[in-house]
Design brief:
heterodimer; A: alpha+beta; Cyclophilin; 5-stranded antiparallel β-sheet; 14 strands; about 30% strand; B: about 325 residues; 2 domains; 21 strands
C-alpha cells in the first residue's frame, strides 16, 4: 500500500479509513508550501467522503468514510488535485507577536537550556526572540502551533521524562521547533517562558490565535506587563 | 423542559455523540463516544436518530434523578443499574416515571455504559457536535465531566413509549474479543522482523493510565519489547484513530478518540474500524493480542458490521 508518484509525492495507507500524502521526506519550506496549497485546495473544493484533514510538516493525513471510499479511488482523485498545486494562490500569512515573559517561574527550564548551550539565560531569550517563525501547522491539541525554525544554536532535546502538566501559555522548545501550550497538558518540551495570550478560545470567532502560514515573533515582556495583559 | 439531576456523577461521565470530525487542521480531534456502536444502538432503542447525544460512563456509573420522567435505555457494559431499586437491563428501553432515580454501580463486564434518553441530551453544540473533549475543555456540558448537582437538559421528545430490545445473539456478535484486528501502520516497515513477530505474538495488558486520549499497553511477558530502526528520521505527522505508536521506550500506545492529532513516533499498526468500538470497552488490566488483516479484509469486516447494524432483526419491538 505504498506508491510513488511524480513530483516526489508519496501515498501511504495509514489505516483502513485514512491515507497519508507525503510532499517530501524532510522539513523544508518547499514541502510546507505544497502542504498549504493542498490543504487550501481540499478545503475550497471538498471531496465527498473525506472526513478530516490533519496537515503536518510535509504531509497531510486524510481520513475518509471507509464505507463509501477506498484508498485507490481517493488516490486517483487526489492526483488530479496535485496536478493543480502550482496554480494555487495562497493567502499571505499574517505577522503576529507573542508577548512572552521569560522570568523565574514562567521559564522553569531556561537555566538548564542556557547551561546546555553554554550561554547566559539572557542570551537564550535574545536568541529565541531574534527570529521570525513560520506556523508550519496546528496539531497535537487544539491551537498548538508548530513553529520553526529555532536558531540552530538553541536546538535542544526534549526532557528525558515529560512533565505531567505544563501550564497553559507555556513557551517551549524541542529540537529545532518552538511552540506554545494552549492548555495545561502533559508535555516534554523545555519551557523557557510563558505568554498571557489565549492560544485557543472556543468562544472567539477565530478560535486559534495562530493559523497555518502565519509569521510569528516572540517579544520579551516583564512579569508586571504579563500580569496587565493577563487581566485585559 | 425535561431535565436530569446528577446526584452522583460516577467516575467519568461525559456527554458524547458521534464526534466532530473536520477540524484536524486546528488541532481538534473528533472525540465522541468511545464505543459508538453502543451509543447508536441506545439511541435507536429510545427512538432517536443514531447520532443523538447520550451520557458515557466509565467503570463506575452515576445516580440520576428524572424530575419530569423520560424514556431511557442503557447500552454497553452492565453497570448493575436500577430504577428506584428495580433492576434495569442493558439493551432495552424503559419508561422512567417523574421523580424516579436511575442508579448505576461499578461495571461487571467491560469499561463503558451509555445512558440514552428520548430527545437526546441537550447541550450547546460546539463545531457541530455535543461531544466533550476533556483535555481542552470544549463541547459537552461546560467542557467537562459531570459533577454532583449538575442539571442536564433533555431535548424535546414526541414519541410515546415503545418497548424495544436488542436480542442477545446480536449483542454476542458485537461483544468484546481478546484479539484486536489491525492493518499495518504507516511505519510498519521500520520495525525489524523480530520486533513485528514479538508484537503479534505478545499478550499486552491495558495500563492503568489509559484514558480517552490513548491506551498504554504493557507487556504481559517479561522482556518482550518492540524496537524500531530509523526512529530518528521520524517527522511529526497526522495520526489516525486507533493508530498504535511505539515510543522509544517500547511500550505501544493505541491513540483513541481524544487523541493528539499529530505525533512523532512510528506507528507499527492500526486497529481496524470494525474493532474500534471494542477498544472503547477495554478496562485497565484487560489482556489483548493483535492479529494482522489486509486492508480489503478490514473493509469487508466494516461492511458486514454495518449490515448487521442496519438489519431489521437488530432491534425487536
Amino acid at each position: 500500500m505504498q506508491k510513488s508518484t511524480t513530483d516526489g509525492v508519496r501515498f501511504q495507507a495509514a489505516s483502513d479509513q485514512s491515507l497519508l500524502i507525503y510532499f517530501g521526506e524532510r522539513i523544508t519550506l518547499g514541502a510546507h508550501q505544497r502542504v498549504r496549497r493542498m490543504l487550501h485546495l481540499l478545503e475550497r473544493e471538498p471531496i465527498a467522503g473525506i472526513r478530516n484533514l490533519n496537515p503536518a510538516y510535509c504531509s497531510i493525513l486524510i481520513s475518509f468514510d471507509a464505507l463509501n471510499l477506498h484508498h485507490a479511488e481517493l488516490e486517483a482523485i487526489l492526483l488530479g488535485y496535485i496536478d493543480r498545486l502550482d496554480a494555487v494562490h495562497l493567502p499571505e500569512g499574517r505577522e503576529l507577536q507573542i508577548p512572552t515573559c521569560y522570568d523565574g517561574e514562567f521559564g522553569p527550564d531556561l537555566n538548564d537550556v542556557a547551561a546546555l548551550h553554554r550561554m547566559t539565560p539572557t542570551q537564550v531569550i535574545e536568541l529565541h526572540a531574534s527570529v521570525t517563525y513560520i506556523v508550519y501547522f496546528l496539531g497535537f491539541v487544539p491551537g498548538f502551533a508548530y513553529l520553526g525554525e529555532l536558531p540552530e544554536a538553541l536546538a535542544t532535546p526534549r526532557l528525558d521524562s515529560p512533565r505531567r502538566s505544563t501550564p497553559a501559555g507555556s513557551v517551549g522548545i524541542a529540537a529545532n521547533q518552538t511552540g506554545v501550550y494552549p492548555f495545561a497538558t502533559p508535555g516534554g518540551w523545555r519551557i523557557i517562558g510563558r505568554t498571557p495570550i489565549s492560544m485557543f478560545r472556543p468562544d472567539r470567532e477565530a478560535m486559534s490565535f495562530l493559523s497555518i502560514g502565519d509569521r510569528v515573533r516572540f517579544t520579551p515582556i516583564s512579569a508586571a506587563r504579563f500580569a496587565e495583559l493577563e487581566k485585559a | 423542559m425535561s431535565t436530569i439531576q446528577v446526584q452522583a456523577p460516577g467516575l467519568l461521565t461525559t456527554v458524547q455523540d458521534l464526534g466532530r470530525p473536520g477540524f484536524g487542521s486546528l488541532g481538534v480531534s473528533p472525540s465522541g463516544a468511545a464505543d459508538p456502536i453502543s451509543l447508536r444502538l441506545g439511541n435507536r432503542l429510545v427512538g432517536n436518530h443514531e447520532g443523538a447525544a447520550g451520557l458515557e460512563m466509565m467503570l463506575l456509573g452515576g445516580t440520576f434523578v428524572f424530575p419530569q420522567g423520560a424514556i431511557v435505555a442503557l447500552v454497553g457494559s452492565d453497570f448493575g443499574a436500577t430504577v428506584d431499586d428495580v433492576s434495569l437491563n442493558v439493551g432495552t428501553s424503559v419508561e422512567v416515571r417523574p421523580g424516579q432515580t436511575v442508579r448505576l454501580g461499578p461495571t461487571s463486564s467491560s469499561a463503558r455504559c451509555y445512558l440514552c434518553v428520548q430527545g437526546g441530551i441537550s447541550v450547546k453544540s460546539f463545531l457541530g457536535s455535543a461531544s466533550t473533549h476533556i483535555l481542552s475543555g470544549i463541547g459537552g456540558f461546560e467542557g467537562r465531566a459531570l459533577r454532583k448537582g449538575d442539571l442536564i437538559r433533555i431535548g424535546s421528545a414526541t414519541e410515546t413509549f415503545r418497548r424495544r430490545t436488542i436480542p442477545s445473539e446480536v449483542s454476542g456478535q458485537l461483544s468484546r474479543r481478546k484479539v484486536l484486528r489491525v492493518t499495518p501502520g504507516p511505519q510498519a516497515d521500520w520495525f525489524s522482523e523480530s520486533s513485528l513477530r514479538s508484537f503479534y505474538a505478545s499478550t499486552y495488558r491495558v495500563g492503568e493510565q489509559s484514558n480517552r486520549m490513548g491506551l498504554r499497553l504493557e507487556d504481559g511477558q517479561e522482556g518482550v519489547t518492540v524496537s524500531q530502526r530509523g526512529a530518528s528520521h521520524m517527522i511529526t505527522e497526522g495520526v489516525s484513530l486507533g493508530a498504535i505508536q511505539v515510543p522509544t521506550g517500547g511500550s505501544p500506545i493505541i491513540l483513541f478518540v481524544e487523541q493528539q492529532t499529530t505525533g512523532g513516533y512510528p506507528k507499527i499498526a492500526n486497529v481496524i474500524s470494525a474493532d474500534l468500538h471494542r477498544v472503547g470497552q477495554l478496562r485497565p488490566r484487560d489482556e489483548i493480542r493483535f492479529e494482522q488483516v489486509t486492508f480489503d479484509t478490514a473493509r469487508s469486516l466494516l461492511m458486514e458490521q454495518e449490515k448487521l447494524l442496519s438489519s431489521k432483526g437488530l432491534i425487536l419491538e
